[in-house]
Structures are given as structure tokens and as C-alpha cells.
Design brief:
Length: about 550
């Protein structure tokens, strides 16, 4: 196990997480598909970027009909990505650089090709083997349950001719839901956790955790029985590998995500799904209100727990946890092209969402790195990669990482037509225009800026651990808040407007202190009794340390 996870039980609060897919990062053996050997080769890049925790998307044996979220074996590596030994070498090299590694635990469902399902459909009714999954004679049971993949699925039930019954699935019909009322299922999941923990991983992202248990007459989401399972998985993790973490994917309203922390006995971290779309709304509306509003509606969490913040990830920018009106606004503002939409969301990367506006990309990352929680950066967004909305499902945001300007983006020795996915080929976002090599040489690139911000953020634990208070500002286009932890106080001010703005901020509580701008270490005028006056350029933002002795 890493020194990281043993040295400080709350290490994840100071982490900067980087999310990537092994297949998309770097092709080490030259077959056109990214692999563990390639990822290992690129660890130096990640170390220099400053991230200290990797979250790997599913890399297990799978028919890959949902990019690996359809698991056929929990305890192996998909042959395209290498061997278990390659994984071990990778893990060792990551740990040597003090980079923690989180892997996926897809608890809710398996592939229909998983031996458990193949066995279940043939096993006698009522047997423990059959009961690994959720069966019914009608497709009317649990009728109050919403459909998640609205573009592909019409029902959460699919008829299985072999079993002679319907099976339950919250996602694709090839992903039958496991039955968590069967204690043997929970044991198997605990065994899978144990397998990866023994190899030394630092924790798991718990995929689709709200849907574990079903009950008639409910929405089949966030049920007390589901929380009981999560508590059991947590207890098992703590027994097996104290210091390792669970990160919950619960795409729910804040009051429904909160219970996934339990009393500090469920997940250590949970993604803050509600704040994400509101950050984009605030930017488009040029108003701080959506962010302040959702943060005020976010309940307090136990001291050992932490939000995970993100701007983009491997899925669509989900609009499930916003009102109808907000959804319409977001679609109008960010996805006028109907092809950019999938399910209840927008399948675009960060840079194209903001029309490649560098100031906006920086502002959004500035918020990501300064709001309370642990930031998660999606691979490629650190260089402003683009997407391809013509690709099926969410594949357009999962294209090869762009390392150099050559035709295969420096991702592989294979020509572009032989890669697992064609690289983005577009005059603005293609590899010739956007790549790591060029941005390393260009001192004013986004990549250098990201490195700098990550370094700064890691120097101040207050970002990961501090409280937040929003400050009254005369101008609604300005977001101002202070973060406090132990002796440190940091003031963050952001201009959500594209034009220059004045801000008079009520800093009376900090009279006598001097704001020191953190990037240049420049002292600003001391805070007095009057509202503090600042001018910010379009999309500008400042981080100040409030110091007694500048
Ligand atoms: C999660 C994953 C998504 C996947 C789904 C079903 O939401 O993020 O990519 O398709 O679970 O496994
Ligand atoms: Ca390969």
C-alpha cells in the first residue's frame, strides 16, 4: 500500500484526481489501443501535471458494449489493455511517484456475458444461482422507476427466453442488475474488492450506487436497503485496507446524495452532481446566483467526508438534476446542435462547450480548484481537447489523448484508421492544433497554466479542507467567497461576465488584513472599514491569501 493512504487517513481531501481510460491514453505495444504499458510510460507526464490520484475507467474483461461498464469478470484485465502483471507494474510505478489509484467497482450490474448471468438464466427458479439477478414474470413490477438511458431503452425489464422470465436492468438491456437481496451477491462484490485491495489499489469509484435495491411502490433509488449494502461494503473496505476510499457516483439532488456519506460510515467521497451544471449556468447567465443557490442547498457532510468536484467526465454533461426550465436553458445555451445531446445531457468536452474560450476554460478550472471539494480533471481537458458529436453514444468524448501533432496524435504507432477510435480531426481541436508536445513548448499554453494552478492549489490545504462563506457583493456578476481552515484564509473572487466589472465586496470581517494575490504574490491595499473595491477583467478571477503580515 502507498505511504499516502497510510500516512494521513484524509489524504483524499488534498488530492487532485485525474480521470482517464486506459484505452484512450497511450498505446504502448502499438496495436492501436491504449494499454497499461502505455499508461505507465506516461506517468511522468501526470506527475509533472501535478495530479496525485488517478481514477481509471473500467479495464476489466468485458464485451465492451458500454465501454467496459458491462463487466464479464471482476478480477481481471481486458486483454486489449495488457495483463494483470502489467497492471501491477503500473500500480507500482504510480505509487513510486506518490500517485494513488482508484479503480471502478461497477456494483449495480454486470454484462449479460458474465458467468453469473449465464448460470442464473439456466438455474432453477428460486435457487441462489438464479437469484443473483432480479427476475419477474411481468414487466410491470417496480413501475415507478425512471429510465436512465432514454435514447436506447424503453423499459427497465427485458425478456430472457432461456430463463423464461424478465430481468431487471437500470441501464442497457445487456447489463442485468445484480440482486442485492441475495447475501451471496454482496459476498462476491466484497471478494472483488478484496482482490484489488490486495493488489494495492487505493480505492474505488462506486458506479451507479443509488440503484442497488428495488422495492415495490418506490422509485427504486436511494432506498434504506441500498444504504445498508453501502455500509457493509465500507466496513469490509475498512477491515481489509484502512485508508482506502470509496467515491460514490450518485447522480441525485444534494439532499439525496448526502446520505451516501452516512455518518462517515458509507462513502468517503461523492461527486457533487448538482453543482456542475450550475457552474455552466452561472457562466452563461453571467450571474453568481446559480452557484450560491446550490451551494447553500448543499447539506453539511461528516468531517471525514469530501465532495468530488468535476466539470466534465466520460459521460454526457448530465442534466438530470436540474429543473425543466434549467434544462431547457442549458440545452439552448450549450447544445443548440441536437447532435450534441444524448439521453438527458450534452455530450461535449469542456473546450467546445465554451467555444474554445481560453479565459472561460481558465475561469471554470479556477472554480473547480477553489470551491469546496477534491477536483477531478478529465483527461485531455488540461490541453483543451475537442470532441466529435457525430460519434455514437458518448464515444465522441473518449477519443485518443493528443500527444503530438501527427496523424495518430502521437497516441500510437498505428495509422489513424487503425486506432480504437479516430482521433478528433478538426482544424480547431485536431491534434495538429491541440497537443501536449506543442503546449509543453509554449510557456503560455493551457497546459502550463493548469500545472501552475494545480501546484498552487496543492500548496494550500485550505482548498481541500476549508469552510466556505459567500460574501455580499454589489455586482451580481461577481462571485466572492472565503475559504478558511486552521490559520489560513483565502478570498476567491470571480467575474462571470465576459466584460470588465467593478466589485465592492463586504470584507468588514477581515478589516486590517492584507489580500496577497496568490499567483504573483502581490500585496493589494489593506482591507479597511469600507467595502473593498476591485476591478476584474472579463472572466477574470483572483485568489488572495488574507494575511496579517504581508
Ligand atoms: C455510470 C457510468 C456510465 C455507464 C453507466 C452504466 O453512469 O459513468 O458511463 O454507462 O454507469 O454502467
Ligand atoms: Ca495497445
Amino acid at each position: 500500500m502507498t505511504t499516502r493512504t497510510t500516512a494521513d487517513p484524509c489524504w483524499y481531501k488534498d488530492a487532485v484526481i485525474y480521470e482517464t481510460h486506459v484505452k484512450a491514453f497511450f498505446d504502448g505495444n502499438g496495436d492501436g489501443i491504449g494499454d497499461f504499458a502505455g499508461l505507465t510510460e506516461k506517468l511522468d507526464y501526470l506527475e509533472t501535471l501535478g495530479v496525485n490520484c488517478l481514477w481509471l475507467l473500467p479495464f476489466f474483461p468485458s464485451p465492451l458494449r458500454d465501454d467496459g461498464y458491462d463487466i464479464a469478470d471482476y478480477c481481471g484485465v481486458h486483454p486489449s489493455y495488457g495483463t494483470l502483471h502489467d497492471f501491477q507494474l503500473f500500480l507500482e510505478e504510480a505509487h513510486r511517484r506518490d500517485i494513488a489509484v482508484l479503480v471502478e467497482l461497477v456494483v449495480n450490474h454486470t454484462s449479460d456475458q458474465h458467468p453469473w448471468f449465464q448460470r442464473a438464466r439456466r438455474a432453477p427458479r428460486g435457487s441462489p444461482e438464479r437469484d443473483f439477478y432480479v427476475w419477474s414474470d411481468t414487466d410491470q413490477k417496480y413501475a415507478g422507476t425512471r429510465i436512465i438511458f432514454t435514447d436506447t431503452e424503453r423499459s427497465n425489464w427485458t425478456w430472457d427466453p432461456v430463463a423464461g422470465a424478465f430481468y431487471w436492468h437500470r441501464f442497457f438491456s445487456h447489463q442485468p442488475d445484480l440482486n442485492f437481496d441475495n447475501p451471496r451477491v454482496v459476498e462476491e462484490i466484497e471478494a472483488a474488492m478484496g482482490f484489488w485491495l490486495d493488489l494495492g489499489v487505493d480505492g474505488f469509484r462506486l458506479d451507479a450506487i443509488p440503484y442497488l435495491v428495488e422495492r415495490d411502490g418506490t422509485s427504486c433509488e436511494n432506498l434504506p436497503e441500498t444504504h445498508a449494502v453501502v455500509r457493509r461494503l465500507r466496513a469490509s473496505l475498512d477491515r481489509h485496507a484502512p485508508g482506502c476510499v470509496l467515491l460514490a457516483e450518485a447522480n441525485q439532488w444534494p439532499e439525496d446524495v448526502r446520505p451516501y456519506f452516512g455518518e462517515g460510515d458509507e462513502c468517503h467521497m461523492a461527486f457533487h452532481f448538482p453543482v456542475m451544471p450550475r457552474i455552466f449556468m452561472a457562466l452563461r447567465m453571467e450571474s453568481a446566483e446559480p452557484i450560491i443557490d446550490i451551494m447553500k442547498r448543499t447539506p453539511a457532510i461528516p468531517p471525514s467526508c469530501q465532495w468530488a468536484l468535476f466539470l466534465r467526465n466520460h459521460d454526457e454533461l448530465t442534466l438530470e438534476m436540474v429543473s425543466e426550465e434549467e434544462r431547457a436553458y442549458m440545452n439552448l445555451a450549450y447544445a443548440r446542435d441536437p447532435q450534441a445531446r444524448v439521453n438527458v445531457g450534452i455530450r461535449r468536452r469542456l473546450a467546445p462547450l465554451v467555444e474554445n474560450g481560453l479565459r472561460r476554460i481558465e475561469l471554470l478550472n479556477g472554480l473547480l480548484f477553489s470551491l469546496p471539494g477534491t477536483p477531478v480533471v478529465y483527461y485531455g481537458d488540461e490541453i483543451g481537447m475537442g470532441d466529435d458529436v457525430r460519434r455514437s453514444d458518448r464515444d465522441g468524448v473518449r477519443t485518443p489523448m493528443q500527444w503530438t501533432g501527427d496523424a495518430s496524435a502521437g497516441f500510437s504507432r498505428q495509422p489513424p484508421e487503425n486506432l480504437y477510435s479516430p482521433p478528433v480531426s478538426d482544424p480547431v481541436y485536431g491534434a495538429a492544433a491541440v497537443n501536449v508536445e506543442a503546449q509543453l513548448r509554449d510557456r503560455s499554453s493551457l497546459l502550463h497554466w493548469m500545472r501552475n494552478m494545480i501546484r498552487l492549489r496543492k500548496q494550500f490545504r485550505v482548498f481541500g479542507r476549508g469552510s466556505i462563506e459567500f460574501l455580499p457583493v454589489t455586482n451580481a456578476k461577481i462571485l466572492a467567497f472565503v475559504r478558511r481552515w486552521e490559520g489560513d484564509t483565502i478570498l476567491c473572487v470571480a467575474n462571470l461576465s465576459r466584460h470588465a466589472q467593478p466589485a465592492a465586496i463586504d470584507l468588514a470581517a477581515f478589516a486590517g488584513l492584507t489580500p496577497v494575490e496568490m499567483l504573483g504574490y502581490t500585496p493589494f491595499p489593506a482591507i479597511g472599514g469600507l467595502p473593498y473595491m476591485l476591478a476584474l477583467g472579463g472572466y477574470g478571477f483572483y485568489w488572495f491569501e488574507l494575511r496579517r503580515d504581508p
